[in-house]
């Protein structure tokens, strides 16, 4: 998507300028990557980890949403459960890993 491409360009440009993105930049980048391949989502998390940027609850929400490719809201719990049930096993494992990492922080 164009949003994901724009987010990646921003992150690359910041790296070129030796600027460290903060959690707000990473949260927005993750939000722009809804429905993108897991490798791209993992790349954002790896970059954050390398730079010592800690995930916030809102980042974790965006990360889970990006994997689910749907916006999570508490009133949509039933729809979210159905979406998770239909996910491929690889995405279910990714979600479990995201939640486990968030709990460990």
Please bin the fraction of helical residues. over 70%
Mean pLDDT: 87
Q: Topology as H/E string?
A: HHHHHH
Number of strands: 0
Query: Which class do the helix and strand fractions yield?
Result: mainly alpha
SS summary, helix count: 6
Query: Poorly predicted ranges (pLDDT <50, ≥5 residues)?
Result: none
Strand content: under 5%
What's the Cα radius of gyration? 14 Å
Overall geometry comes to globular
Describe the main β-sheet briefly: none
Distance between the termini: 31 Å
Q: How is this structure best described in words?
A:
With 105 residues, the protein is mostly helical. It has helices spanning 2-16, 23-32, 38-51, 57-68, 77-85, 89-104. It has six helices and no strands. α2 (23-32) runs parallel beside α4. The longest helix has 16 residues, at 89-104.
Please write out the topology:
Elements: H1 2-16, H2 23-32, H3 38-51, H4 57-68, H5 77-85, H6 89-104
Helix pairs in contact: 1-2, 2-4, 4-6
Which structural traits does this protein have?
105 residues; globular; mainly alpha
């Amino acid at each position: 998507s164009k949003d994901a491409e724009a987010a990646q360009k921003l992150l690359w440009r910041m790296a070129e300028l030796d600027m460290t993105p903060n959690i707000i930049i990473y949260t927005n980048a993750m939000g722009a990557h809804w429905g993108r391949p897991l490798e791209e989502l993992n790349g954002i998390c790896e970059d954050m980890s390398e730079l010592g940027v800690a995930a916030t609850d809102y980042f974790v929400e965006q990360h889970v949403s990006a994997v689910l490719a749907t916006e999570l809201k508490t009133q949509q719990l039933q729809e979210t459960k159905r979406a998770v049930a239909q996910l491929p096993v690889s995405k279910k494992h990714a979600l479990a890993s995201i939640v486990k990492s968030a709990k460990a922080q």
